[in-house]
Specification:
elongated, 4 helices, mainly alpha, 2 strands
């Protein structure tokens, strides 16, 4: 009865309201590390897209200045490499999102095991891009 009296003595806006407790993951640091990794991949993807754009535009500048260029199927190396880098950047960001979501679920289930396939494929593609750029520079010097 004293409880009811205490509640009745309080104004209506101060009466006991059930407080919803928000559950916090026990793996907060793991989730934050996963998010930082995702953001790093996003920055890398955007930088790769930007670099592809610069390579393609630089080739256009060279053509306008009259520097010799070797076309491939009516396309220049700079166009092929620039478009390739742009597509690589887009693929990087898509795979980064998929990896982020998979890691998030795995961390919550406490079944996290890093997947190395993405890193291997990305390393091979980056090496191929580097070789292509070296080939392009050798032909245009």
């Amino acid at each position: 009865m004293t409880q009811n009296k205490e509640i009745a003595d309080k104004p209506e806006d101060q009466q006991q309201v059930p407080v919803k407790k928000r559950l916090v993951s026990k793996k907060v640091t793991d989730h934050l590390a996963n998010e930082r990794t995702f953001l790093a991949w996003m920055r890398t993807g955007l930088a790769t897209i930007t670099f592809g754009f610069v390579v393609q535009r630089f080739g256009l500048l060279l053509r306008q200045l009259g520097v010799k260029a070797t076309p491939i199927f009516s396309l220049h190396f700079s166009t092929v490499i620039g478009v390739g880098l742009t597509l690589l950047g887009v693929l990087m960001m898509i795979f980064a999102l998929v990896s982020f979501l998979q890691n998030r679920r795995a961390i919550d289930k406490e079944e996290f095991h890093p997947y190395v396939g993405f890193s291997i494929v990305l390393t091979i593609l980056a090496c191929l891009v580097g070789i292509s750029l070296a080939f392009y520079l050798a032909l245009n010097s």
